[in-house]
């Protein structure tokens, strides 16, 4: 009973904060809206701005671009930032427990109505940019955007913007009159268009067939004018644009189409963000059903940004929606991704979004959606909920999955599931940061445990809608006692009785039943839950979140280098802010020792950059290879692998921008520095170095460069 009283107190505090009855300044640092690096304690709500709420009809487009009835889902329907502000102020989002919103790309889009096979299309979705430094007037003015930021922050809600630096808008290679010719503007000043592209702002290699990573990067995505990130003007423009939005106070960035941009440029883009005003950033790299991509995980681990976890989403849909896999498949996904992601808790989990069919189907069992939401909200990662899921919206692929939200009811079971589980990410660090362990399983039932220090949450789900499950032999880390279902029985959960050693009494889990039981306690030793950002240069302040750090300053270690004193900017029991020490670029383990000397766990894979970064295209000619052999690049800085062939950059490309036997790759390297480098050929474990002396190149202080050389025999 005592534990239930503790949960009730936490719930009362959360309600008080969201209703504005108490000042939010008392929130723990790791859960504060001011913490822009860590979203593990947050629940994201993805809003398609045009389809949410029309708060200001005066900014609606006119003529053929607008359909106020929202019958034609390819036209603007009227949703705007004022509509989102209204739904924050009336408590719809805070009442659901939402602590972060992800909105459509806010930049100015083209105004043309494009005719595709007799069907009119507009840029209602925000992905057809024309000026990355102005707002989309259909969403609102710059002042409206600032008002949205201020309103969200006043209600402890973070704001994530979508950002699509891959392209501008649809264009035709031989018809400059089509749409707006992909034209790019800089705060109203024309930089250039897709045809007659004398400035080389765009790629002109045709459309991608998705056959290779290289093909997808350097060729157009469908008919979208593909930006040339190797162009210094484009590079500087996009980095200046994101700085502008950071200066406006955004808390996070979702980067569109990361699979289709040079990886080296994206790393330099992330270094710009992290070295300037670091915020949580995650990219979109689509994975199909049962697809596991080494390049996908490598990007998540090395780019400096997290990813939308399509691996999680596709498996959750198979298990809870389509019945094409079972709980053993779900377990395999959780365990496999734990290994493949360097920071599994930083990946953004979801069950549907604007690029796939909605999870719920018009004739589907609502319990399937409710269980999938419960699974997502209690699993590792940062959960993102697609707008309208709480209202059981259904719909097929684009644009049917982007309809106007039909209701703002706060009484649906799905709304209540989110309402009851979302606060756990702030009140129980096991949900935010914990490990995941399966405790009981069969084809239809999984019981898993999240654990962080001595904090525990146990989740039981029976996806069989007809047959109850008899649970025997369950052992958890919960201390002895009786635990009420956090969901309050709305998904037919039950009370759990735990005896000595964590052994649970036998019980029956109802058909379609879901229950969550939890225990929280103070930490007795320091334990790190999150570090952000995970890549930056020396001198940048990073945030370490966790529990048990104590109130007095201790020591933070980057590898064996100790940081103390003034370089520890802030130290609280749940959060430390520390400056990266002046150590050589490379990968470091981070650990903490509190004032008493007690040591934390190790948080690994932190990348210290050599310095500010720029992108250089390295091109090597006449590098002939045997079948199965590829060309790589290495050099004397960590960004090039520090002369270690195992960490060399590549394999390089040789099909689109240049063709074999010429190879090329865009690489993020230290800015304004003379670096040494060499090329090598690898086939399996066999390494063949090119001859001659080490090459040297002085990188630019900003913008981009190209280094073009011949293979040295």
Description:
α9 (310-322) packs antiparallel against α10 and α11 packs parallel to α12. By secondary structure, the chain is α+β, with helices and mostly antiparallel strands. The chain is built from 14 helices and 40 strands. Strands 14-13-12-7-2-1-16-15 form an 8-stranded parallel beta sheet. A 5-stranded mixed beta sheet has the order 26-33-32-28-29. The longest helix is centred in the first third of the chain and has 17 residues, at 2-18. Among the domains are: 433-519, Immunoglobulin-like (Sandwich); 528-607, Immunoglobulins (Immunoglobulin-like), CATH 2.60.40.10; 613-710, Immunoglobulin-like (Sandwich), CATH 2.60.40. The model is unreliable at 1-26 (pLDDT under 50). The radius of gyration is 26 Å and the shape is globular.
Brief overview:
This protein is α+β, with helices and mostly antiparallel strands and 713 residues long. It is found in: Secreted.
Which strand-content bin applies to the residues?
Answer: 25-35%
Can you tell me the CATH class of the domain at 613-710?
Answer: Mainly Beta
Strand order within the widest beta sheet: 14-13-12-7-2-1-16-15
Shape: globular
Helix content: 10-25%
Uncertain runs with pLDDT below 50, 5 residues or more? 1-26
- The count of DSSP E runs of length 2 or more, i.e. the number of strands, is 40
CATH superfamily of the domain at 613-710: Immunoglobulins
Helix tally?
A: 14
Keywords: Calcium, Glycosyltransferase, Metal-binding, Secreted, Signal, Transferase
Catalytic activity: Cyclizes part of a (1->4)-alpha-D-glucan chain by formation of a (1->4)-alpha-D-glucosidic bond
Main location: secreted
GO biological process, one term: carbohydrate metabolic process
């Amino acid at each position: 009973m005592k534990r239930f009283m503790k949960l009730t107190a936490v719930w009362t505090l959360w309600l008080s904060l969201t209703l504005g009855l108490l000042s939010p300044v008392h929130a723990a640092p790791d859960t504060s809206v001011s913490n822009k690096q860590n979203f593990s304690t947050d629940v994201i709500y993805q809003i398609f701005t045009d389809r949410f709420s029309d708060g200001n009809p005066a900014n609606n487009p006119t003529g053929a671009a607008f359909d106020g009835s929202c019958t034609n889902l390819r036209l603007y329907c009227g949703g705007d930032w004022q509509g989102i502000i209204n739904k924050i102020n009336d408590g719809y989002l805070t009442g659901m427990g939402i602590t972060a919103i992800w909105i459509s790309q806010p930049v100015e889009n083209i105004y043309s109505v494009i005719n595709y096979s007799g069907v009119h299309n507009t840029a209602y979705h925000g992905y057809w940019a024309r000026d990355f430094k102005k707002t989309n007037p259909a969403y609102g003015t710059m002042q409206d955007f600032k008002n949205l930021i201020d309103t969200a922050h006043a209600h402890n809600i973070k704001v994530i913007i979508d950002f699509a630096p891959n392209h501008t808008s649809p264009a035709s290679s031989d018809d400059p009159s089509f749409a707006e010719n992909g034209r790019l503007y800089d705060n109203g000043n024309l930089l250039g268009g897709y045809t007659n592209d004398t400035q080389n702002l765009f790629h002109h290699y045709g459309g991608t067939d998705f056959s290779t990573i290289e093909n997808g990067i350097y060729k157009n995505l469908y008919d979208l004018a593909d930006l040339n990130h190797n162009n210094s003007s484009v590079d500087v423009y996009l980095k200046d644009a994101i700085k502008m939005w950071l200066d406006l106070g955004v808390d996070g960035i979702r980067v569109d189409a990361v699979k289709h941009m040079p990886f080296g440029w994206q790393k330099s883009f992330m270094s710009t963000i992290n070295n300037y005003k670091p915020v949580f950033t995650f990219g979109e790299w689509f994975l199909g059903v049962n697809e596991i991509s080494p390049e996908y995980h490598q990007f998540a681990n090395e780019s400096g940004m997290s990813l939308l976890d399509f691996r999680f989403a596709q498996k959750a849909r198979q298990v809870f929606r389509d019945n094409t896999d079972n709980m053993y498949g779900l377990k395999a996904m959780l365990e496999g991704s734990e290994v493949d992601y360097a920071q599994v808790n930083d990946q953004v989990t979801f069950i549907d979004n604007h690029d796939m069919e909605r999870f719920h189907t018009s004739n589907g069992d609502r319990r399937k959606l409710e269980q999938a939401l419960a699974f997502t909200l209690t699993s590792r990662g940062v959960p993102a909920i697609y707008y309208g899921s709480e209202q059981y919206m259904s719909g097929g692929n684009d644009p049917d999955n982007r309809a106007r939200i039909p209701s703002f009811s706060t009484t649906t079971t799905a709304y209540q599931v989110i309402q009851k589980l979302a606060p756990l990410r702030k009140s129980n660090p096991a949900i935010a940061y914990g490990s995941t362990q399966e405790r009981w399983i069969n084809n239809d039932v999984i019981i898993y445990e999240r654990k962080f220090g001595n904090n525990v949450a146990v989740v039981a789900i029976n996806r069989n809608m007809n047959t109850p499950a008899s649970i025997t032999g369950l052992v958890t880390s919960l201390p002895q006692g009786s635990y009420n279902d956090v969901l309050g029985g709305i998904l037919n959960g039950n009370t759990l009785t735990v005896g000595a050693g964590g052994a649970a009494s036998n019980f029956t889990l109802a058909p379609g039943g879901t229950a969550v039981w939890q225990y929280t306690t103070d930490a007795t030793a320091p334990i790190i839950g999150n570090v952000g950002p995970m890549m930056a240069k020396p001198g940048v302040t990073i945030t370490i979140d966790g529990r048990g750090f104590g109130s007095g300053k201790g020591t933070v270690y980057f590898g064996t280098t100790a940081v103390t004193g003034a370089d520890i900017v802030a130290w609280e029991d749940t959060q430390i802010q520390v400056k990266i020490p002046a150590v050589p670029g490379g990968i470091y383990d981070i650990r903490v020792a509190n004032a008493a000397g007690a040591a934390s766990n190790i948080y690994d894979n932190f990348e210290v950059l050599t310095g500010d970064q720029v992108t250089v295209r390295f091109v090597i000619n006449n590098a002939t290879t045997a079948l199965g052999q590829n060309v790589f690049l290495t050099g004397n800085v960590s960004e090039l692998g520090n002369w270690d062939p195992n960490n060399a950059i590549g394999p390089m490309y040789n099909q689109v921008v240049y063709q074999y036997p010429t190879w090329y790759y865009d690489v993020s390297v230290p800015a304004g520095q003379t670096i040494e480098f060499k090329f090598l050929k690898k086939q399996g474990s066999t390494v063949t170095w090119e001859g001659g002396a080490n090459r040297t190149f002085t990188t630019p202080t900003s913008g981009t460069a190209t280094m073009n050389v011949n293979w040295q025999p």
